[in-house]
Amino acid sequence: MIKAAIMGYGTVGSGVYEVIKKNQVSINKKVGQELKVQYVLDLREFPGDPVMDVLTHDFEDIIKDDEVKIVAEVMGGLHPAYEFTKRCLEAGKSVCTSNKELVAEHGAELIRIAKDHQVNYLFEASVGGGIPIIRPLNSSLTADVIVEISGILNGTTNYMLTKMSREGLNYGDVLKEAQAKGYAELHPEADVEGWDACRKIAILTSLASGNQVDFHDIYTEGITKVTSEDFAYAKKMGCAIKLLAVSKKMGETYCAMVAPALVRKENPLYMVNDVFNAVCVEGNMLGASMFYGSGAGKLPTASAVAGDMVDAARHIGKVVTIFWNPEKLTLAPKEKMTHRFFVRMKSDAKDAKVFGDVEMIDAGIRREIGFLTPVMSEGEFEEKAKGLDIISMIRMEG
Amino acid sequence: MIKAAIMGYGTVGSGVYEVIKKNQVSINKKVGQELKVQYVLDLREFPGDPVMDVLTHDFEDIIKDDEVKIVAEVMGGLHPAYEFTKRCLEAGKSVCTSNKELVAEHGAELIRIAKDHQVNYLFEASVGGGIPIIRPLNSSLTADVIVEISGILNGTTNYMLTKMSREGLNYGDVLKEAQAKGYAELHPEADVEGWDACRKIAILTSLASGNQVDFHDIYTEGITKVTSEDFAYAKKMGCAIKLLAVSKKMGETYCAMVAPALVRKENPLYMVNDVFNAVCVEGNMLGASMFYGSGAGKLPTASAVAGDMVDAARHIGKVVTIFWNPEKLTLAPKEKMTHRFFVRMKSDAKDAKVFGDVEMIDAGIRREIGFLTPVMSEGEFEEKAKGLDIISMIRMEG
């Protein structure tokens, strides 16, 4: 029997408990012995919930029990999750987490501490919820040099953009509706400003490069300025508008960005709608592959955490190699990224010529022009756009 | 330094050699030491090719070299691949393969032999070419009970069906064109009769259930009878026609089938076109996820084999758990599978009533009727269809 603990009995934590209870027989078979949840840590009480049998309010109960070999950290936030994780690893317990803030901030350090203590720090659930993407990147695509990663990594914003596209609604109305349905939080900034997607692309870029990417270095733009007029133009161009997190190899480093983007029908990300997430990975040998599924939600995320617990149980005493060193990767400056840019200006067509040979797009909106520039760098675009009366700009992907 | 050998210098074998040469620096970093190809085994000579430096015609050179710890078996076919693989594993060498025939036929046995000798038998490239699907099933989705797998697992037939759909061509013309382009073989039966997809769904069902599935037990129907008229009806229904390999959990076992199927727009498999492959996996907790990419081709397949070689190098002396026991799984009989059936008959509408409350489909084709039955079992359908003058029948998925 292998004993485990779950730290946090919120949405994901109660999901992990439910997944293990429900699939106990099949999980035990895959582990090769029983995986038993011995403790659930939460400060609250849950009267009438069977979890009361294993509930504790004291982290020390877990840390002092040498038989506990696996801990799921599903508390969220940086503190005390960081301190608890570190102490668990140092006490010889593997930790499995869905905590993207902590992984993005301290991933490399915690992986090193785990290795030093012959245990594992696993974080499949931190990106893409239930979609297996961390393990494929880490263990499957290892013969490839990763050339590009592009993903729809946030379910809330994808739900909102899908709704805007289908129903012609404005940002504000869609946000209200998403909040009413529980898809968006009362303080939705982490989602709508792109901060959540930013942490996730930082984690993926760290794994692709093998070095620590600081998410603060990644240019991040949310969806708050996307309007129904933008969607009218997008449809004219046969495109969807998606909040894309992109990371591209540039020489010996990567350049990463989170921003709304026009995605063409030919791109497999075009059809990723509603709360679904997807990640495209392009290797220099493999070409493109895509991983698609439920990027959030209680049970999909819990399934990924519990899958890591099975993996940790199979690797007691063995360290799973994770290629992520603490040395910081200096990202290439955003100004070097190249795209076509879709621009709306209060002007007439001849003013668009400053961007070169542009393609005019007519979506029937008066007193403005819309056009696509040729491919140019962000730096070049900024230079040319100086002093112009630009209403909005959206990058075109691929 | 870890020494490796490649058995077979055909399309995939030369690809593996190329991938390792090209990405040697990054592969060495991920392994933690140099991965060196010491031998390439092939009966032929390759004058002028740098492979001549490491070419051998004698398998004994590899087996006798105790320093060779990893062998890529990319010869294809059952013999001598089976004997060579067995001897390598027994000699303490891990084997990585793209050989789906061998994996489908002897997978469980070879995994057990590998385990007995503290080495690994890895076969990511045997299903879905470059798409990571074996490792996610085996190591990521372990907390879930797999409820359904459905996939487009053969690139040749998907290319042909895409072409038929887009250009309104007939099967025979598309086959000729695919053969001229090198996408289909001169003897195309393994692809067009569904045998290739059948072996692959047998492998996936074995991994989902943990027991050995005999591919001979899987009902398999190819694409040779699909006509341009079928596509006319499919378009009326807003569907694509795909060669689907499907495996569904039924009680304690699974029921599997390979056959052309109508796939609706809402299904993520709908947009999988040309030579691309994709696998949808539905877990009881996770919901649906999809893995998409290049299902065949020299470099994608070679990338998957080389990725397994990196994994084998990271696991020298450690066994990667693979949940696939030699006990045979008795599949549920095909007759128990349920779908809607699309039927074309030389008849008039009232004769369709034998199938119950059918939905008539008018694709403007004279002297026949086309209709969708309600959901019923294969057994029930066969019973009702007895003695009727049916032109064609295609199942509807999802």
From TrEMBL, chains A, B:
Domain Aspartate/homoserine dehydrogenase NAD-binding: 8-124
Regions annotated as coiled coil: none
One GO MF term: NADP binding
Chain positions recorded as L-homoserine binding sites: E185
Enzyme class, broadest EC rank: oxidoreductase
Catalytic activity: L-homoserine + NADP(+) = L-aspartate 4-semialdehyde + NADPH + H(+)
One Gene Ontology biological process: threonine biosynthetic process
Residues reported to bind NADP(+): M7, G8, Y9, G10, T11, V12, G13, S14
Location of the Homoserine dehydrogenase catalytic domain: 132-310
Superkingdom in the source lineage: Bacteria
Alphabetical keyword list: Amino-acid biosynthesis, Methionine biosynthesis, NADP, Oxidoreductase, Sodium, Threonine biosynthesis
InterPro entries: Asp/hSer_DH_NAD-bd, HDH, HDH_cat, NAD(P)-bd_dom_sf
Pathway terms, separated by semicolons: Amino-acid biosynthesis; L-threonine biosynthesis; L-threonine from L-aspartate: step 3/5; Amino-acid biosynthesis; L-methionine biosynthesis via de novo pathway; L-homoserine from L-aspartate: step 3/3
Annotated active site: K200 (proton donor)
Family listed: Belongs to the homoserine dehydrogenase family.
Protein name as annotated: Homoserine dehydrogenase
Higher taxonomy: Bacteria, Bacillati, Bacillota, Clostridia, Lachnospirales
